[in-house]
Design goal:
The protein is an alpha+beta fold. It contains 3 helices and 4 strands; from the N terminus they run ααββαββ. The protein has helices at 8-78, 85-95, 131-142, and strands at residues 102-112, 117-130, 149-157, 164-174. It has a 4-stranded antiparallel β-sheet with strand order 1-2-4-3. It is rod-shaped and about 125 Å long.
């Protein structure tokens, strides 16, 4: 050890500098990393909470979809085994009294590869029909227990009589 003859004032300065350097090293090597780690953990926790919130939202959406699927399946099971969209549309036209306005009915089927289902469609042209009768027919199609929906509808005025229209509609349902 080196023996330095320092006066009291110099010793205080040297000890103060030593304490300052030691405190600086402790702060830089221990305290600052602890606070940085704490901030990092707080950010990670916030991100994880956000992810958890999104997962919970997706879970709720998934459960709602599962309920809709279960309801659709039970509705399909209640549909008669011999159900065909063409016969349903024809029978409904007779029940609502618009069968005499049917110009043509053209059935078709398509396979939706994404969903893995077969869609049954019927395109129907109605000529010289009142808006009231058309509305009643469309209402009966859409509200039936057979899960049929009107996919497209085109209405134009007929040149013959006032208040009558021509309509082309396309109804669709999933085949079981």
């Amino acid at each position: 050890m080196v023996n330095l003859n320092l006066n009291t004032r110099e010793k205080i300065i040297v000890y103060g500098a030593g304490i300052f350097i030691a405190a600086f090293v402790v702060v830089q090597l221990i305290i600052v990393p602890v606070f940085e780690k704490q901030d990092e953990l707080a950010h990670r926790l916030a991100a994880k909470r956000q992810v958890l919130s999104e997962i919970q939202q997706l879970k709720a959406e998934y459960e709602a979809m599962q309920q809709k699927i279960a309801a659709s399946r039970s509705q399909f099971k209640r549909r008669p085994d011999d159900f065909t969209l063409f016969s349903f549309m024809d029978r409904l036209a007779g029940q609502t009294g618009i069968k005499k306005h049917v110009s043509y009915m053209k059935p078709s089927t398509t396979v939706n590869d994404e969903a893995g289902v077969t869609l049954s469609r019927v395109e129907m042209e109605l000529q010289g029909i009142s808006v009231k009768d058309l509305t009643r027919y469309l209402y009966n199609v859409e509200t039936s227990e057979n899960m049929v929906m009107v996919k497209r509808l085109s209405i134009s005025r007929t040149g013959r009589e006032e208040g009558l229209v021509d309509a082309v509609l396309q109804a669709e349902t999933v085949e079981t």
